[in-house]
Design a protein that fits this description.
- The complex is a heterodimer of chains A (about 240) and B (about 200).
- By secondary structure, chain A is an all-alpha fold.
- Chain A has one domain: Ferritin, core subunit, four-helix bundle (Ferritin), CATH 1.20.1260.10.
- Chain A contains 8 helices and no strands.
- In chain A, helix 2 (about 20-50) runs antiparallel to helix 3, helix 3 runs antiparallel to helix 5 and helix 4 (about 105-125) packs across helix 8.
- The longest helix of chain A is centred in the first third of the chain and has 32 residues, at about 20-50.
- With about 200 residues, chain B is mostly helical.
- Chain B is built from 7 helices and 3 strands; from the N terminus they run H-H-E-H-H-H-H-H-E-E.
- Chain B has helices at about 20-30, 45-60, 70-80, 85-105, 110-135, 145-165, 175-180, and strands at about 65-70, 185-190, 195.
- Chain B has a 3-stranded mixed sheet with strand order 1-3-2, sandwiched between helices.
- In chain B, helix 5 (about 110-135) packs antiparallel against helix 6 (about 145-165).
- The longest helix of chain B is centred in the middle third of the chain and has 29 residues, at about 110-135.
- The N and C termini of chain B lie far apart (about 40 Å).
- Residues about 1-10 of chain B have low confidence and may be disordered.
- The chains are: A mainly alpha (about 240), B mainly alpha (about 200).
- The interface of A and B includes residues 52 and 154 of A.
- Chain A: GO terms for molecular function: phenylacetyl-CoA 1,2-epoxidase activity.
- Chain A: Keywords: Oxidoreductase.
Amino acid sequence: MSNADPIKTCHDLEREPEEFQTAVRKLVVSHAVNELYGAQVFDEPAIALAPTPYAKWLTCRVAMEEYGHHVRFRELGEELGVPAAEMTPEHKQPLSIFEFPLETWAQFCVIKLLADLAEILQVEDLAHCRFLPLRNLARMTMPEERFHAQFGKDFCTELCQTEEGRLEVQAAIDHYFPMLPPFFGRSRSKNNEIYLKYQIKQRSNDEMRADFMSRARTVVEDELGLKLPEVAATVN
Amino acid sequence: MRFDDDFDEEELPDPAEYPTLVAVARFTRLIPAVPWFAAVGETIGLQDRQEAESYCSALGFPGADVALVPDWHEAENVARNPDWNDSWWEQEEQLRVGLIADACEFLPEHELMTALTHVTSVASDHVHGAAAIAAQHGGIGDEALVRAAAGAATQACYQAALVLAAGADDEHCFAIKYRLFEAGRWPLGIIGSTFSLF
């Protein structure tokens, strides 16, 4: 399938193959659940870890923005007929990247730097999605996702001004970065094949993962002057 | 009964069932009408000074000097000062935890959290734009500073709503702090023995 007509509304999607509809719902539910869970396990607890009122208030705002993303994806999910209760972490298991026990401000800054970079790649891809409500949602959330990654970069840069902070940021990267490649899914993924077939997504999991590795290396090694741990380029 | 007309969140608790939520619902409806950040940097009048002093006393810092922060640059410097007095934040946290316990005597915790999430969602939608406009008037285009201001205002809404949900009186320090925001100010906290008011 190449450059098929865009699907303009949720109603129009109902006329498409069941496999297409299911794939869209699956993706929307995943975003709704993970935006909420991320805010609960990382952003909200990070308010207490933030070192100054400025950092605390900024983190409050970031937590609200992440929660706002959950609300937008949940609303789209409801339009697609998914009950709200099915778009919560209690109902659907969140991603493994949230299994990281957040303990320090440096860890949170690294999570914003790298996990939000990974999220940017996903949202960039969805910004060309054939299903327009999802494309529009991706475009709407993109500026905030970019800001969150910039937040991570700015505070990591600030921490790296001291040797102690630099070591803390490096330790957080060493600990957290290896958890991120699986975020893009398996190299041979049935879901990804379906997403590509219907142009819900534009790139394979491995292509996205490779792009992420490259961008993460640029920001960590070239811009922060730290070292990115070696990890496998494929996930099976 | 519903919280407000333009929010069709079916999961919100019914204020009729939980009387303290009637005041929270009323409070939430008024958030968009507050002149957020409209008076930042202006000379501190008698009423704002008295409120600021009352806030400090209610928080356990009687005698703190109230100082005017004249512009956004200085506001950022104060908020980012690593020598800030973190005990005022800790004190607020303790009061927050106490209010949650008090509020839970009137309604289940899940209902309380749902109501407070609604308050912060409504606040979040309004305060960011207001902070951006005020900062622009002050010659500032710093996205992060605007977001920090919005975060502070959203936190104040959450705290003030909690006061109402817990049935506490309007001399609670969170109620006083909210009135400072309502007056168009941004309270920046305590450094040493100085309370900085933008």
